[in-house]
């Protein structure tokens, strides 16, 4: 369980204590999510497709991955809190929509949907 | 509450039914998070700083924002599930680390930390 | 004038001398362009729309901006060289296409095209 | 040769005719570069490292790649023009700096520099 309400409250206090709410515009938070996402991506910048999930076991890489995933999660929780959006409901709607969009019989084993 | 276990299970089934697990490498999921983050950012591409949170009330923009936030959330849940990472614990560690890194008396009301 | 042929040759030698050509797949170079673009964006992460072009005169920010723009330029030149794409011709086609897509009488002074 | 002066002039006229200069702040152009970079990256989102340069020969993919590279080039030319930055000089300085940073004897055949 991710207690996003509790995390959102912690982020509110964090911003209030530093008077940073003024910087938390939709554009700035969207920018921050992109910047953190790129930091996660950078960890895999030059891998030639050979990197599997076992490599995340490496303690140093794992710590960085955790850090970047946490940054992204916190910024989307902050964005959703400011915009009064229910993240879990949005995620459930999206899963249902994707099941419709990609019927199993047409998309099994192909990445066709993606690159075309 | 975000039931990330349940969402992770739904994503596992979704991938298994389509034989898409093979595409879900660390690099590809990190790529996907960046791509979705850019789609969120694109919604605010040309705003001149004047866009506030009240504008997210616009139904069309709001639907797109929800959609992109959901995509990002689902991909980080999928990444964390594959990597066996506890997202909530990582987020709580991060908040604690940030509190240390940005003491309120030194960073109040300034974006100095960011752009320097 | 940007002598992209000369820069492409320099990048070829650079990669050959380090045996890095193997890492320069389409996906890895596309990843690198995104990572560098995010580093440029990070320089403006928290600005509230108030930052104008005069601020780029600041020597420290200016040096970072130059650095990131150079990284992006070098990676797109490298990508175009590997893919045998004529960057200038592509840019001229794009300008012509945009002139068609955004007739002046319909798009003057509005960012409507963008955010809708 | 990329005639960046000529392209910059074309972009100036393009913006002036539409009164779009007001939207071309440093942050908005940096955002645009990131958004276009992600659109390029999306073309390779799910490839499993197996995609080589020969696949860019595919006419449909090739057209999209050219389009995205052109978008990125035009936005960095526009950014450099607004900021009065000499792109070629910046690129040459960067190549020289990289040669110092990655001596051939220490970095041959390894992606160590990158992921560590």
Please give a structural write-up:
The first copy, chain A, has helices spanning 4-18, 26-42, 59-83, 87-101, 104-107, 112-115. Helices cover 69% and strands 0% of the residues of chain A. Chain A is mainly α and 116 residues long. In chain A, helix 2 runs antiparallel to helix 3. The mean pLDDT of chain A is 91. Chain A has 6 helices and no strands. At the A-B interface, helix 1, helix 2, helix 3 and helix 4 of A face helix 1, helix 2, helix 3 and helix 4 of B.
Structural class of the secondary structure composition of chain A? mainly alpha
What is the oligomeric state here? homotetramer
Helical coverage of chain A, percent range? 55-70%
Number of helices of chain A: 6
Largest sheet of chain A, in brief, is: none
- Fraction of residues in β-strands of chain A: under 5%
Mean pLDDT of chain A: 91
The low-confidence runs of chain A, each spanning 5 or more residues with pLDDT under 50, are none
Alpha-carbon distance between the termini of chain A? 36 Å
* Biggest interchain interface, per-side counts: A-B, 71 and 71 residues
Order of helices and strands of chain A: HHHHHH
Radius of gyration of chain A (CA) equals 18 Å
How many β-strand runs of chain A?
0
Shape type of chain A:
globular
């Amino acid at each position: 369980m991710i207690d996003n309400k509790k995390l959102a409250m912690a982020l509110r206090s964090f911003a209030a204590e530093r008077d940073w709410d003024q910087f938390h515009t939709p554009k700035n938070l969207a920018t921050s999510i992109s910047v953190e996402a790129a930091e996660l991506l950078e960890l895999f910048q030059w891998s030639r497709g050979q990197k599997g999930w076992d490599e995340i076991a490496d303690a140093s890489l794992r710590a960085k991955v955790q850090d970047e995933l946490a940054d992204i999660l916190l910024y989307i929780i902050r964005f959703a809190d400011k915009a009064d959006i229910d993240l879990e409901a949005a995620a459930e709607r999206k899963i249902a929509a994707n099941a419709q969009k990609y019927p199993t019989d047409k998309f099994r084993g192909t990445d066709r949907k993606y690159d075309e």
